[in-house]
Each structure stands twice: as C-alpha cells, then as structure tokens.
C-alpha cells in the first residue's frame, strides 16, 4: 500500500460538503447548519474535539463528526491513534453526538455515544497496541492492513487492523495512523444504532 496523502483526503472531504449539507437538510430536516472552520480558533477547537458540523436536529443542537471513504467496505474504520503511539485518534477525543459516515451513494447515520461504548469494550478484547507495534516493526514506512478473528458478544467476528504511513511531501515529518475496522453488522448486533440513507 502507498504512503497516505493527508492533503488528498482533505480535498476529497471538502468536495463533499454540498452533498452532505443537502443530506442534513433534505433527509434529516436539519436547521441552522454551521461548519467548523479550522482557520479560526472556534472552528479549530471544535475540530480538535472531532466536531465537523453543528445543526439543529429534532429540536436540539447537535455536534456531528463526518468521515468519508471512497468505497463502501461494509465496515466502519475507527481511528485509534492519529499518530502512533502518542496521539490518540478521534474516537478518544470526540464531543460528537452523531457520526455521519459517508461512502459513495450512501451515508450511515450512527449514534456516537453508543459507538463509543462499543469502542472501549472492543479495545479490551482485541488489544490493538500489540498488533499496531508489530505492524510498524514489520512494515516500516509502509501502509498495511491485516485481519484477525475475535469472540465479540458470543460469536466470531473479524476485526481489521490498518496502518497508514504518513510522510508529507517536502517534509521531514512522518507518522503512522493506526485504526481498526468493524463490520456494520457486528456493530448493530452489539446494540449500536445505525440508520442507512441513500444519497
């Protein structure tokens, strides 16, 4: 797998704002949509808390985290470390009420609080730090994915481990973003409320 290009990911996300806003207004009935802008202090603080957009939903203002994938793999990619091993990922520092998980022609609307409860339980089961350290050692300066089976809620479930190697062009900086992936079916069986909408 190639080196992860953060700027390309960011450009892709920004290109989807109009589609996402239309989903919020037309499908969820959202009002007063406000996006967190990283160029000012208020927006920067919100994004550091994993809040990308705020709006009024079902009579109250909510915080929403947005994630985008260029393909629907049937699973949810959960960032454990934004920079392994010292900087926790968005699952550990989120103030979001909902996660809007966009894939081509579909969005998964996920209760973030229920997802967080599941996430902390799953970390105890899969012990990802050991796997991440092994991947970093075995595949230095490379992006990589692997999978293992674990017993979750009484049945065998596959958990994916993903290492994204980051090395920005014209920079000496480099880091590894480490994530786990869980199927939507597994999440639903664990009690995480997920609605699917066509785009």
Characterize the structure shown.
By secondary structure, this protein is α+β, with helices and mostly antiparallel strands. The protein starts with 5 loop residues before the first helix and ends with a strand. The longest helix has 15 residues, at 112-126. The mean pLDDT is 92. 31% of the residues lie in helices and 39% in strands. It has one domain. The strands form two sheets. The chain has a six-stranded mixed beta sheet. Strands 5-4-10-9-8 form a five-stranded antiparallel beta sheet. Strand 6 and strand 7 (106-111) form a beta hairpin.
How would you concisely characterize the structure shown here?
The protein is an alpha+beta fold. It is built from six helices and eleven strands. The protein has one domain (6-198).
